[in-house]
UniProtKB/TrEMBL annotation:
Pfam families: DUF4127 (PF13552)
Region (Disordered): 535-561
TM helices/strands, residue ranges: none
Alphabetical keyword list: Signal
Designated name of the protein: DUF4127 family protein
Source organism superkingdom: Bacteria
Listed Polar residues bias regions: 551-561
Signal peptide segment: 1-25
Keyword rRNA-binding included in the entry's annotation: no
Amino acid sequence: MRIIKSLFSAATAAACALTCLSVSAQTILLVPQDNRPVSLAYTVSTAEHAGYQVLTPPESILSGSNYKGNADRVWSWVEDNISKSDAAILSTDTLIYGGLVDSRKHNESLATLQSRENRIELLHKNNPKIPLYGFGTIMRSPYASNSGVEPYYYGTYGNKIYQISILQDKQDQGTITDKEKAQLTSLKQSVPVEYLQDWFDRRQKNNTINKELIQDVKNNTFTYFCLGHDDSSEYSQSAMESRYLAKDAKGLKSTRYGSFPGADQLALLLIARYYVDSNKLHPTFGVIYPLGRGEETVPSYESQPIGKTIKEHIEAVNGTITDNANPDIMLAINTPLFNTKESGRFENFSMKKQSTIDFVDTIKKYADSNVPVSIVDVYFNNGSDNTLMSLLSENDLLYKVAAYNGWNTASNTIGYAIAQAILAPAMNEQAHKDMLLEQYLDNWAYQANVRKNLYRMESSYPATGNQKISPVIREEMVAELQDFAQKKMGVDPQTVYADFPWDRFFEIHAYVSDTPSYEHILTLAEKQRIAEEEAKKKAEEAAAALESTEQPSQVVDVQWN
């Protein structure tokens, strides 16, 4: 077995070289929260790049875009396969409700939910040598939603329910004003009582289950367990529940239990935690920011400063923050001057910005000194900062960093960035490049650039029949992605591909191949350019031919002597 090549400090690397076996000998059983790429495909590919074998349930029984997950069938699969693994990473939302979205929409009885939850303790008792790493969520309180991932009435009444939850949280904390009390009464009267009852009853069941999961941590059922705050805000029903659950978790160390923003990053974060535990590592992290609010930045969709979220994620992998000039991993947090905005906005274009130039210079200094740098790009939500990415490319840093992430919410990005940087040392050069490309294609090419082009095209190429996205737009997405990858990332366009796994513009599944494996598709603009050139050439040829036929024949005057 090969020895793990450590990215960590010399002393840790020396110890690891003596004691750590290759992760290729280890098998992880993974139960994801659903079948989206961030939950399943990207998580699995990162672990496999690091040498792990990953067992996952059949996709047909996981929660998908238009069907529920089957918790009981997933449980049967887990019990049949747990003995084949060295560790298990378990989404309790899938094991108990069927999946993340199912946890928000289910109509299961509390007795059924508790019966499934009790199987976790039995799983541990029957397999005491296999560490269980679990993650669940505190049900979110979104300000609005009409995409089918909340109860059907949320599209109409979601914002009012959200406002009710804010005011009730304030009431619970004793900070509500008389004006807000009147507003709360009015809002409650404006939402049908059966909808409010449905929403709060489900939350009460889920909260009861979360209390029992915390008790499982205290009973040593889990090696580590965390609850993600899915799309949280400062005041909400989610924030209130989190506050009370913290009392239930009192006394638990941060290396055993965590509760912090985010959900989609948790499976990969716990794989990294298993890597740390199994190799007896205690990684240290440095943190750098560009000009701006830095660690005090409160990102959109989250309820606390980013510095606190980073600290909590580092504790989740049994790491610590250090001021040492040579940490095991340097986190480069790309925060805005003021507030985070959406990556699709007009202002997200590449520009010469001195604060970002200075930030990239610092990244380059650490990379050139062989300090692994993981870039946490949270300048925008849901996509990369084009200014940062252009500078990384100009400075030849795209494939010299340990990891890069800039997707969805700040906590999602933080979790992936920490996890991938921890796992990177176990990857060979090609696997590491493939991991980076996966993120660049998804976060930079698609989310920050291609997606907004597709939104503009949608009215010209509408979906018909049962289609949600027209074939023209599907093909154009791949074409623009391949074109972007070739021009910006220096890769063969036939080595990259993508599709819409949930038939919506929100996310893609980016595929990366080590060899040319996909058809090279031309963009509509390129097809039009070629057609215009061909038409112009034909017109010029026709004009030349016509001109030659219209030339008068020369008459030669012959004179006889």
